[in-house]
């Protein structure tokens, strides 16, 4: 966040560092467990490195493609580009690429592994529903994710979960295959199936831990982005209004459309499916409760009002 005028958030920085350290420890144990389970260490390292490189350098392209989003030029979307230009000037940050996704689901997201690869994307449904100041507040929220660099952390954390999930599924399939063929030979025995099940166990534990760590960071980073956007624009009420509109209109979107974009919940401004109030589901939610976000914005409004 060096050089940015977005409000610093030491709590977010501390959580990002802690999450990355814990994830590193989890996956050191993950690789060690796979090796002890019988897998070749070089095979494990090559697999993890390949997934890491692919996810890290292609995260922006994958997200844009999956959402059906396209990068737009200033000539194609002059108003949106002007808004991003103005906010980047206010925040004293480099301008990211700008994209639009043609979907009625009202949302926005930012992605990319670095400032140079960063892209901010809004949906046509969002632009249709929000007034200018409301849309500006949402764009400021997404720009703060880039400035805070939590997009990069979420990208790295996400690929680790993908690796563990892939190995869990592969291990289950191999265990079934090895178990079916294990009785055909005198010396083959159940060893391949046992190894595969050990891989599944280690991978599943790593996936659960990375999932919980990433979700905890995801919830906090949304609150941090709300705060940063509210202080930068000086109009937290506009962000609260946008949040209320989006969550209210989300209930009118066909469930099929929401299911299609649900995998992107962790990167969205507002989740496709949200639970009201606190429940056990909030422990694995990508976003804090809407009520908590609105309460925080109301507090900021009062603070700014006293300052004025």
UniProtKB/TrEMBL annotation:
Compartments where located: Cell membrane
Q: Which NCBIfam families match?
A: PRK02391.1 (NF002669)
Q: Which gene encodes it?
A: htpX
From the Swiss-Prot or TrEMBL record, give the protein name.
Answer: Protease HtpX homolog
Co-factor(s): Zn(2+)
User: What's noted on cofactor binding?
Assistant: Binds 1 zinc ion per subunit.
Into which family does the record put it?
A: Belongs to the peptidase M48B family.
Q: One MF term in GO for this entry? A: zinc ion binding
Record keywords: Transmembrane helix included? yes
A Gene Ontology biological process in which this protein takes part is: proteolysis
**Residues annotated as transmembrane:** 12-33, 39-57, 151-172, 192-213
Q: Which sites bind Zn(2+)?
A: 141, 145, 222
Peptidase M48 domain: residues covered: 74-299
């Amino acid at each position: 966040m060096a050089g940015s005028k977005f409000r610093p958030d030491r709590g977010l920085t501390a959580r990002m560092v802690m999450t990355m350290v814990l994830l590193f420890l989890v996956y050191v144990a993950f690789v060690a467990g796979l090796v002890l389970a019988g897998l070749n260490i070089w095979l494990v390292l090559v697999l993890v490195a390949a997934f890491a490189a692919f996810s890290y350098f292609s995260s922006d392209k994958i997200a844009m493609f999956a959402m059906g989003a396209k990068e737009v030029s200033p000539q194609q979307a002059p108003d949106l580009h002007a808004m991003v230009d103005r906010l980047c000037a206010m925040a004293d940050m480099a301008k990211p690429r700008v994209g639009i996704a043609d979907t009625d689901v009202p949302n926005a997201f930012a992605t990319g592994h670095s400032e140079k690869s960063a892209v901010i994307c809004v949906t046509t449904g969002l632009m249709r529903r929000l007034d200018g100041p409301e849309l500006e507040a949402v764009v400021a929220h997404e720009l703060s994710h880039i400035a805070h660099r939590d997009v990069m952390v979420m990208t790295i954390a996400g690929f680790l979960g993908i690796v563990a999930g892939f190995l869990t599924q592969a291990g289950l399939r191999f265990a079934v295959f090895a178990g079916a063929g294990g009785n055909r030979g005198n010396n083959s025995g159940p060893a391949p199936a046992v190894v595969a099940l050990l891989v599944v166990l280690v991978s599943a534990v790593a996936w659960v831990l990375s999932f919980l760590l990433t979700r905890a960071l995801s919830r906090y980073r949304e609150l941090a982005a709300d705060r940063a956007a509210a202080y930068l624009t000086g109009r937290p009420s506009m962000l609260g209004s946008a949040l209320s509109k989006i969550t209210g209109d989300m209930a009118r979107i066909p469930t099929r459309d929401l299911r299609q974009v649900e995998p992107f919940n962790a990167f969205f401004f507002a989740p496709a499916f949200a639970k009201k109030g606190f429940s056990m589901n909030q422990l694995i939610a990508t976003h804090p409760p809407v009520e908590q976000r609105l309460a925080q914005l109301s507090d900021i409004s009062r603070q700014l009002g006293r300052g004025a």
